[in-house]
């Protein structure tokens, strides 16, 4: 594909379509991690960061591509790492819980009660 040959407005359209595709891909498949960054911001944040302001949700990949860095306050990279952690809790029969958790305690909603 020769993207260079497209005029600017077509390029914008392509970006728009691509971000829509990413959005729906995320919604449908849960593909990619969502971070929050404003268009002018140089940092990306987790959803609950007080510094994220009016930031828009985007995939972590998109934020990295836009050369945004991880926020030093909410530390999205560490937070996202937690997201893929398996629960540390044990089920009634003594085996390890198979649920995934985003909790910093490393326990799923059931075991963190
Ligand atoms: Zn932040
Ligand atoms: Zn659990």
Description:
The chain has 113 residues and is α+β, with helices and mostly antiparallel strands. It has three domains: 1-31; 32-71, no CATH class; 75-113, no CATH class. It contains three helices and six strands. A two-stranded antiparallel sheet has the order 1-3. Strands 2-4 form a two-stranded parallel sheet. The chain is elongated, with a radius of gyration of 18 Å. The relative contact order is 0.12. The chain binds zinc ion (2 copies). One zinc ion (ZN) is lined by residues 87, 89, 97, 99, 107-108, 110-111.
Question: How many individual helices?
Answer: 3
Series of H and E elements: HEEEHEHEE
Taken together, the total number of domains comes to 3
Shape: elongated
* Share of residues in helices: 25-40%
Terminal Cα span: 53 Å
Strand content: 5-15%
What is the number of beta strands? 6
Helix/strand structural class: alpha+beta
Q: Note poorly predicted spans.
A: none
pLDDT averaged over residues: 80
For the biggest sheet, the summary is: 2 strands, antiparallel
- Strands side by side in the biggest sheet: 1-3
Ligand inventory: zinc ion
Using the CA coordinates, give the radius of gyration: 18 Å
């Amino acid at each position: 594909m020769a993207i260079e040959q497209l005029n600017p407005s077509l390029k914008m359209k392509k970006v728009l379509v691509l971000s829509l595709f990413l959005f729906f891909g995320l919604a449908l498949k849960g593909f990619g991690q969502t971070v929050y960054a404003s268009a002018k911001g140089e940092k990306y944040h987790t959803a609950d960061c007080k510094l994220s302001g009016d930031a828009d949700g985007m995939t972590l990949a998109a934020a990295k591509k836009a050369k945004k860095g991880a926020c030093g306050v909410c530390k999205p990279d560490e937070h996202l790492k937690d997201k893929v952690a398996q629960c540390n809790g044990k089920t009634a029969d003594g085996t390890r819980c198979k649920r995934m958790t985003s909790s910093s305690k490393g326990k799923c909603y059931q075991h963190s009660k």
